[in-house]
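Structure ticket #2291
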Amino acid sequence: MCGIVGYLGEKDTKEILLSGLKELEYRGYDSAGIAVLQDGNFNSYKAVGKLVNLEEKTKDFVTDKFAAGIGHTRWATHGKPTELNAHPHVGQSSYVVHNGIIENYATLKKELTSEGVKFLSQTDTEVIVHQFEKNLKKSDSAFEAFTKTVSELEGAYAILLVTKSEDKTIFFAKNGSPMLVGINEENEKYFASSDTPLIGRCSDVNYFEDGDYGFVTKNQLAIFNKKNAKVEPKFTKLSTNKLSAQKDGHRFFMEKEIYEQSTVISDTLLGRLRDSQVLFDEIESSLFDGINEIKLCACGTSYHSALSASYMFERYAKIKTSVEVASEFRYREPVMTQDTLFVVISQSGETADTLETLKMAKRNNLKTLVICNVDNSSMVRLADASILTRAGVEKGVASTKAFATQVTVFWMLSLYVAKLKNSLADAEIARQIKLLRQVPASVKVTDDRHERIKRLSKRYLHGHGFFFIGRDVFFPLALEGALKLKEISYLHAEGYPSGEMKHGPIALADPELFTIALLPQHLLYEKAKSNVEELSARDSTICVISPIVFDKADDFIQTGNHEDYMLEFFEMMVVVQLLSLEISVRLGNDVDMPRNLAKSVTVE
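Resolution: structure written out below.
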């Protein structure tokens, strides 16, 4: 998502910050800015859109002496992409940049506002700089004020802060969002949210641990851990390969994005969960007034997340839900009634067919909601309300973390509606929220799991096709698994409800038909198992994904023991993503840029 850079030294600070931000463009952003403190004075510049706009604004700005500088590329999570919402954010005498989400920002903002603080932006980040300056008035030093401020923040953050009272210092803090510091023989200090801005400028880097905070001066790097104990930096040599650094050591962006799912799901949950309630600051509960049906409309992977949502809305919220393929819905002359909430789902917010269905809904005066990853996209601007998935940029054409965050949002939204409609007891909502908090752990990829799938993949390179099968909410996951395999391996694959096998498709069963069977322990296990046994009896080659050992399987990928089928869903999602990835790699395909496909489909 967002990118951070920082520099303390005597070189051209502006150039270092701008070039560093350029190296972070691959992460995705909608605005950018820098702030430079030299000779006790600040200069700050911000611009919406591409970095060229910021470069134009700063073309006459000269930095030719010792300075402390911070910069940021923003991917909107709170507030639209505007100059006021762009970082760095300013107080009376300080600037801050921040990646992540401050969960308790609303509480802090309310307190600060009651004390007379005027906020310029809609962001959660701005509370950091005002809270710091509030604490500075009662502290003996800026570092004391910064330490207190960090202790008052809840959520995920990577923070750089500079203040006039100590104009040759940069303060930093890290919890949940990545950040590192680099050094070189010239005693300069560089900060960034990934390796790439530091390559060619630093020789050694220290990767901060969660809870680390501290400060740098020309001659000092002070790091304190979450127990407030001073720790020594752990320097490692910096990679010299920028593309590899962008991929965080992974072979492909798709692989990196599969591994990132734990982090982005955490981001998606941040600030939205309480003990027995889901909160969406972005929408008003009145959006659901008079609504008797939810209609979900999407394409491709987003359509599969919508299908998953339909099970949750009807099961938890007890509201009639239908799902439409956008390219079909456009031309069907559908009946659209005003007691329907029309929900569109898109990673980019620009998918042409889905955008047109949203326009149809608007013309028919339906209430509309978009689930999207990109603020200020066409769909977000057009819909009555929007919920951002916070997946960050996704460079692999075959979507992974976008799907994961969409399903996460829908799970939360189904509980949100259930609370409004009193369709679930508070105790059950609380139980489900506890499960949601476990999702990031359930999608973490272990080396053993990945190596097992990598070795198994060599058995599935030939044959006349794949069936991915599952029941209930695992049917949409089967569809998604088949789509992933088709997209990047170019092998024929279909997703089916397990119970449909005997209604025709089982005629294809033979040793050259590969069946990937999703068998969750906590949802229709015995029925799905019977369906797989029917295929096994016809000599189909079976790969079972389940926590329960299946003796009739040719291959078996064992998942963890979870207390609920939704946690099984997310773990199995990762397994089918990795299986598709490794089959494609063995076939020698371009995993990130599969043939004939584009990332954002903006034509019919």
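Closing remark: Residues 565-586 form the longest helix (22 residues).
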